[in-house]
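New here. Your pick:
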Amino acid sequence: MHPVIKSQTRMFQQEQSLSRLTDSEAFEAYTIYSVIAGLLSYSVDPLSVHLRGDEFGLDGLAILIQGKLATDSDEAETLLEDINDPDVEFIFFQSKTGSSYDYGDISKFFDGIEAFFNDHLYGESPQLDDLIAVKDVIYSKAVKKRNPSLRIYYASTGTYKRPPRIEALVSQRVGNLKDLSIFANDSIVVEMLGAEKLQAYYRSATRATQATIEFSRQVPLPKNDRVEQGYVGFISANELVKLVDLTDENGDSLGINRFVFFDNVRDYNEKSPLNISVGKTLEENAGRDFVFRNNGVTVIAKSIHRTADDFRIEDYQIVNGCQTTNILYQHRDKLADVSVPFRLIGSSDDDFTASIIIGTNSQNQIKEEQFLALRPFVKDLEEYANSVEEHLRIYIERREHQYHRESIERARIMPLAVLMKAASATLLKQPNKSARDYKRLFKENANSLFNERSDVQIYHAIAYIYYRLEFLWRNQRIDNSLKIFRFYLLWAAVEEVTGSKNLLSLNKPAQCEVYARKIIELAEDEDRFKSAVIRNGLVLEQALKNLASENREKLRDSIRSDTFFGNVKEQLFPVSPEATQGLDVLADGSEARLHVLPR
């Protein structure tokens, strides 16, 4: 393997805690990460994209809805909620550790892509079956106004020199895909990657976001205890473009940097009448009017270093002005004499930053977890989970991309949406509804979850055991087929080790510490935890077989049912009618007497 690529792949494995992957598997995951994070600037777990089985012709497949990864129909349904015109991308990967570009391998890659959309790959693996189900959800619900786009990446460690036979093959196969009439016009992108591009994309994914701009026409904003520096004024459009132009070490442009947008850049629709009109204004050299017509751009940075009129800003986000910035970037060769209203705020206070984001995006849909991030308890949980012993540490991600540039184990980062699902499964004891209905569950139990009476120890323990469960899959210690039961397995492990205790009823720190320690001790003991997961997984698999259905989506619907949950619960934790111990108070104030029989 190319020596630099080999070195970067090893660094990637260390950061992602992927010790069990073979060299070829590690290179495949490295390629996915370099493209997804470095080129396309999406915050996506590459292991969730990687196909580890023998799926025909494919090494990876990412299906993105509004920039978020959908790995099963539940996630797709949740991401499509309340979105009238979603942006959807299919991204396919094939990687070879050798330096050549083989005609047969590339042809097989395109065969695999076509077979995916023609449903000829069903049954290749449970993971791929779930992705086919995502595709079906998208084409049944998300193509009212526009079709999805398609990206195709073939990688080797050599240098692609555009050989005529392969160029002709790619052209022919892209034509076949266009003939399917299921993708947006001119949206199919094919790129043959080599060592040079992979290195550049990987470095882009791992280096800090920073830029230097000239901001001469500004005045300081009023003093604020939570703002280190603040300025308002107007800026040259060419300077603004510097904030979003993703470049390699040689200064060559790699495209637009999506990581700098709080609202995903895919919310930008270049076909909208307003954006077309603004574009025409720029094309007709009438840009001098722009500053009078535009509401402007707001940027928040962790740090600002000023030298005269030059501002070097680091770890920044464009929290308002996604449309404006994209329009300017698309017309960056027509920006002479164009100025933009501009506000630059330097603050390291995440709560203050979150409040600005919500305030400046009031016209956009704000996710439930973004409001949750402002709760004092969640801030306390973040600090606690980040302060425990290093091997128990979990990083609660209250702000999207919060830890993207930090050198920490990526699997330990816990987005609030995932924590909400885990809490729904274990604390509300509803694993059957945690994947798709967690938002509704949260709203219905808003007074019970993540409030001032909650205990950080319990929530940290739940986050930690979720991390350990994912660790078993990431390092191939348990079979991927069990992922369909992810929240059931989490619930069952916590129920077993706590004796089905209602953890929401605990109101003393000492009690919470006892039960949190029980959960953590189980998660830390890999052999014991793995044994429990496999044992409970066998019960779940048998219960699923008893449903006598071969359709994975019908099975998934069954798993969500109260009937299935009740049957599984009875098998795993049968209730003894004569039990007289274990009086517990449920979240709604009712009482239940539970006795877990020995196994």
About this structure: The chain has three domains: 3-206, 210-360, 368-593. The CA atoms of residues 124 and 339 lie 54 Å apart.
